[in-house]
Amino acid sequence: MKVLVINAGSSSLKYQLFDMTNENVLCSGIVERIGLDGSRLVHKLNGQKHVKDQEVKDHRVALKIVLEILTDKTYGVIGSMKEIDAVGHRVVHGGETFSGSVLIDEKVMKALEDNIELAPLHNPPNIMGIKAAKELLPDVPHVGTFDTAFHQTLPKKAYLYAIPLRYYEKYKIRRYGFHGTSHFYVSHRTAEILGRPIEELKIITCHIGNGSSVAAVKYGKSIDTSMGFTPLEGLVMGTRSGDLDPAIVTFLQEKEHLSYKEINNILNKESGAYGLSNGLSSDMRDIENAALEDHNEVAKLALDIYDYRIAKYVGAYAAAMNGVDAIAFTAGVGENSPYTRADVCSYLEFLGLKIDNAKNNIRGKEAIISTEDSKVKALVVPTNEELVIARDTQKIAKSIKK
Ligand code: ADP
After folding, report:
1. Does residue 110 carry a pLDDT above 80?
2. Atom 12 in ligand 1: which residue has the minimum CA distance?
3. 241 pLDDT exceeds 70?
4. Residue nearest to atom 1 of ligand 1 (CA)
5. CA distance 213 to 165
6. Which has the minimum average pLDDT: 112-116, 232-236, 329-333?
7. How far apart are the CA of 331 and the centre of ligand 1, in A?
8. How confident is the model at residue 271 (pLDDT cuts 50, 70, 90)?
């Protein structure tokens, strides 16, 4: 079975075509700058990039271009669109409606539209991607996999905020959590690498990328996570503030005469590592280089605050689970920064965690990076959200064929 996985963002559309007989990625790519100047397709095949500059006015056009390249004589990997058996879509917000992947029918489309209010930036492009794909590939099953789904097992004590309960009842204000597909994949892979059943393990997964979150995965279920009602809460991120005293919001609004939109923009786009480093960069590679090579003090402070926040969450989640067996690092920074991993782990020696500096000196591949005698294991586990989406899509597509 061949499964096309689509991740439609506000101005981009990423794709991967899987051959599920061996879970191989046949090709992948991205259409960038949809609806903007300078839009283009970057198609990856056999480790080579093929770039095509082309006007792309919307997600439908973007997907048409993807389907054309998939069937192209030179750069394609399939003879015709008929070889695509199912399509899996990444959807950011499933609200309280979805705790697993689903076949996208009319009822699901309606539920997705109902959830727009919860994810105004993310769900509309996801919906556009689904609509375009259903139109261009009408005869195959379309499956939705939600970033929030894995966290639907959070208990009430973890997901309710201490504001009047009526706001949960009226607006569904609660912790949803995000990056769920990644936390699911990484926690399961961690158990496999350790050779132990996930049902016996207390795992803390640290998805540290541009957007970042930590999850407490107890016996295979997410019981707490650092992102909340929106992806703004929790860790210090590239440009997002993460946790802060909510009174700062109203204080700043009053002092600086800021509208709701402006304060929202400051917290989402001008804060985090970028804000702390006085606008030096939101990219942790730049911050690390400036801090460690150029001895830039502001960058070093940004890096310290960034790592410290991660360590605090790991400590909190060890308490939430009354113990921890393994801590796994994933995503751009988690997979590629030995410095941040070592710095975070340096706060966690009290848990019995000992990092092996030689083993930690790796980028982008699976490894146990703690010492043999470390009580708590530390690991690097590159995430693979697309594979989870492809597997779920295959499972659901097969089940409806029966
Ligand atoms: P997104 O949330 O956009 O998917 P990624 O998971 O791709 O983000 O992570 C992007 C982040 O990973 C950037 O801050 C980037 O600098 C960081 N990163 C990538 N490689 C390295 C590296 N070698 N050292 C430190 N940070 C890195």
Report:
1. yes
2. 332
3. yes
4. 210
5. 25
6. 112-116
7. 7
8. very high
What the block records as the tokens of 149 is 């789904």
Give me the pLDDT at residue 123, please: 87
pLDDT > 70 fraction of the chain, expressed in percent and rounded: 100
Band (pLDDT 50/70/90 cuts) for residue 120 is confident
- pTM for this entry: 0.95
Say if residue 22 is in the same domain as residue 130: yes
Alpha-carbon gap, residue 11 to 161, rounded angstroms:
32
Atom number of ligand 1 nearest to Cα 208: 6
Ligand 1 site: residues with CB under 6 angstroms? 209-211, 238, 283-285, 288, 331-333, 336-337, 363
Range of the domain at 128: 2-146
Tokens of 383: 């995430």
338 in a structural domain = yes
Q: What is the rounded average pLDDT for all residues in the chain?
A: 96
Distance CA 217, CA 306 (A): 22
Which of 37, 114, 147, 245 is flagged as catalytic?
A: 147
In three state form, how does the secondary structure of 294-349 look? CCCHHHHHHHHHHHHHHHHHHHHHHHHCCCCCEEEEEHHHHHHCHHHHHHHHHCCH
> How many angstroms separate the first and last alpha carbons of the chain?
15
**Quick check: is 108 in a domain?**
yes
Active site residue 147: yes
Which atom of ligand 1 approaches the CA of 207 most closely? 6
Domain CATH code at residue 50: 3.30.420.40
Residue 161 within any structural domain of the chain? no
Residue nearest atom 23 in ligand 1 by C-alpha distance: 336
Task: Give the residue whose CA is nearest to atom 7 of ligand 1.
Answer: 332
What is the Cβ-side half-sphere exposure of residue 177, based on CA atoms within 13 angstroms? 30
- 49-82 pLDDT, tens digit each: 999 999 999 999 999 999 999 999 999 999 999 9
Query: Which among 285, 287, 330, 381 is the best mutation to test ligand 1's pocket, defined by most ligand atoms within 8 Å of the CB?
Result: 285
Q: Are residues 16 and 130 in the same domain?
A: yes
Helix ranges restricted to H, 48-153:
59-70, 106-114, 123-136
**6/12 Cα distance (integer angstroms):** 10
Does 402 have pLDDT greater than 70? Answer: no
